[in-house]
Write a structure and sequence with these properties.
Blueprint lengths: L5 E6 L9 H12 L2 E8 L8 E4 L2 E6 L7 H26 L4 E5 L6 H7 L5 E6 L3 H8 L5 H17 L2 E4 L2 H9 L8 E3 L24 E6 L8 H14 L5 E6 L5 H10 L6 E5 L3 H10 L2 E4 L5 H5 L3 H8 L4 E4 L2 H7 L3 E4 L4 H12 L2 H19 L1 H20 L29 H9 L5
Parallel strand pairs: 1-2, 1-5, 2-4, 5-6, 6-7, 7-8, 9-10, 9-12, 10-11, 12-13, 13-14
Antiparallel strand pairs: 3-4
Helix pairs in contact: 1-15, 4-5, 7-13, 11-14, 15-16
C-alpha cells in the first residue's frame, strides 16, 4: 500500500471530471505521487453520477439545474455552485479528509471556502485557469461598472489568500505578481500540456472527409467568447465567395454556445460543408485529428484570449497538424512555427489562410513536423506535472512548520478526517528541509 503524501480536495465548477482535461491530469498526477485526492464538480449528461471512484480518485458531483445567461445568470450560477460545493466539502471532510483545498477558477469565489477551513490548518492552492475580469469583458463587451469591479476585487482576494498559485502560462503569472501581489516563489507555471497516453495518432479515415479532398478540424468547448461564429463566417466566405468546395469542416466539442452555432451554420447556408460532432470519445477524436489536413483556432483578439493558452493548439501539434489562428501572444508562444497567424478578427483573411495552407502540402508537412517536435520536447504534460509536484511539496513543507489545531468533538459524531494530522506522516529530516527549499523556485 502506498504511503500518503497528503490529502487534497480539488474544486472545479466549469466542467465535470474527467471531462476537464487539465483538472483530471492534475488529479491523476497527485494520486500517482501518493496524495489522497477528492474532486468536487458539477454533473453533465455524460457524467451524471453523484459519487464515483475513478482510478483511485473520489469524485463528488452536484446537479446544475440551469445554464447561466447574462451577467445576473452567472451570479446565480456561481452562488448555487458555491453552496453545493460547500455542502459536499463537509461530506469530503468527514469521509476522506483533506489538508489542501485546490480551487480552480472561474469563478474567483472559492477562496471564501478555503478561509473557512484555514483555522484547522487547511492550505489553499489556487489554480488560475482564466482571467475572470478579462473573460467577463470578452463575453459582455458593453458591460462594465459594478460587475467588473467586483471581479477584479474577487481576483485580488483569491490571489492574496492563496498559499501557492498555479499559473497556466507566464502571462497569468505576471497577473498573479502584479494584480495579486504574490512573490515569485509563490507562483508556479503549470502548463496544460497534452496527455500523450490519451492522444495517440491513428490511421487516417478518408470517410471523415465526406467525399472531399481536404478536412479542416476545430476542437473545443463552444462558448460565446471562443470565436466559433467567426469560424463559420470564414467558412461562408471560403465556400460562397472563394468558391472552395473541396474542404469539409468538422467541429468537435459541446458547450453552451453549440446550439447557436448549429443554427448559425444553417443561416449561413453551409450545408454539409460543416459537421458538428458534439463531444466524442478519445478514440474518435484521435481519428478526426489524424485525418485532418489543417486545424483551426478562431479565438478572436480580446485581452482574455491574448493572455490565455488554448489547449487545442497543443493537441493539434501532437498530431503534427498545421494550424491557422489569429495572431495572439500566447498562440505564438505555444505554436511558434506550427501556425499561420492571421490579422486578429479578420474572417476573410482567416478563410484565405486556410485555402492557401490547404493548397501547399509541402508547407503543411513542414509546419506539422515542427509543431510535433516542439510539443514533444517542451510542452507535454510531463513538464507541467513536475511543476505541479514542486508546488505541492512547497505547500506541504510550509504546512509542516505550523501545527494543525486539534479538533475536540462536542457530540457523538467523529471528528472530521480533515482536522486530523495524517498518522503516516514521516518525520522531516534535514535533507527534506533542503529539498523543500530547492523547490521554492519559479517554474
Amino acid at each position: 500500500m502506498r504511503a500518503s503524501a497528503g490529502s487534497v480536495l480539488i474544486i472545479v465548477q466549469n466542467l465535470p471530471v474527467p471531462l476537464d482535461r487539465r483538472v483530471w491530469l492534475e488529479a491523476k498526477s497527485l494520486h500517482k505521487a501518493g496524495y489522497r485526492v477528492t474532486v468536487i464538480c458539477r454533473k453533465s449528461a455524460e457524467f451524471f453520477r453523484s459519487t464515483e471512484m475513478i482510478e483511485g480518485i473520489a469524485v463528488y458531483r452536484y446537479p446544475m439545474p440551469f445554464e447561466a445567461r447574462g451577467a445576473l445568470g452567472y451570479v446565480g450560477e456561481f452562488f448555487y455552485a458555491w453552496m453545493a460545493t460547500a455542502l459536499l466539502s463537509l461530506r469530503a471532510c468527514f469521509s476522506r479528509g483533506f489538508q489542501i483545498i485546490h480551487a480552480c477558477n472561474p469563478p474567483d469565489t472559492y477562496f471564501l471556502l478555503a478561509l473557512l477551513y484555514r483555522p484547522f490548518g487547511v492550505r489553499f492552492v489556487f489554480d488560475h485557469h482564466d482571467l475572470s475580469p478579462e473573460m467577463f469583458m470578452a463575453k459582455f463587451p458593453n458591460k462594465r461598472g459594478f460587475f467588473l469591479r467586483a471581479l477584479y476585487r474577487l481576483e485580488k482576494w483569491t490571489l492574496a489568500s492563496a498559499d501557492v498559485v498555479l499559473s497556466t502560462n507566464f502571462s497569468y503569472r505576471q497577473v498573479a505578481l502584479e494584480r495579486g501581489g504574490k512573490t515569485p516563489h509563490e507562483v508556479f507555471v503549470v502548463r496544460t500540456g497534452p496527455d500523450l497516453q490519451r492522444l495517440r495518432p491513428r490511421a487516417p479515415q478518408p470517410a471523415l472527409k465526406r467525399g472531399r479532398p481536404f478536412l479542416a478540424a476545430y476542437l473545443g468547448e463552444m462558448c460565446p467568447q471562443d470565436g466559433v461564429d467567426r469560424l463559420l463566417q470564414a467558412i461562408h466566405y471560403l465556400v460562397h465567395q472563394l468558391q472552395r468546395r473541396d474542404i469539409s469542416f468538422v467541429l468537435v466539442g459541446g458547450g453552451p454556445a453549440q446550439p447557436e452555432m448549429v443554427a448559425l451554420s444553417k443561416r449561413l447556408d453551409l450545408g454539409d460543408f460543416v459537421h458538428f460532432t458534439g463531444r466524442v470519445p478519445d478514440a474518435e477524436l484521435c481519428e478526426i485529428l489524424s485525418t485532418a489536413d489543417v486545424c483551426v483556432d478562431p479565438d478572436p483578439y480580446t485581452a482574455w484570449a491574448d493572455s490565455s493558452t488554448m489547449n487545442k493548439i497543443m493537441e493539434y501539434m501532437v498530431f503534427a497538424k498545421p494550424i491557422v489562428a489569429f495572431d495572439l501572444t500566447e498562440h505564438r508562444f505555444s505554436a511558434q512555427e506550427a501556425a499561420v497567424y492571421v490579422q486578429p478578427n479578420d474572417v476573410q483573411k482567416f478563410a484565405e489562410a486556410v485555402a492557401q495552407l490547404v493548397d501547399d502540402e509541402k508547407q503543411r508537412l513542414r509546419m506539422g513536423r515542427l509543431g510535433h517536435q516542439r510539443v514533444l520536447s517542451q510542452l507535454t504534460w510531463e513538464y507541467g506535472r513536475r511543476n505541479l509536484l514542486r508546488a505541492y511539496r512547497q505547500v506541504m513543507a510550509d504546512q509542516a512548520k505550523q501545527p494543525i489545531r486539534k479538533h475536540r468533538p462536542t457530540s457523538d459524531l467523529p471528528a472530521p478526517a480533515c482536522l486530523h494530522e495524517p498518522t503516516n506522516r514521516r518525520p522531516r529530516s534535514s535533507v527534506g528541509v533542503v529539498e523543500a527549499a530547492k523547490d521554492r523556485q519559479v517554474a
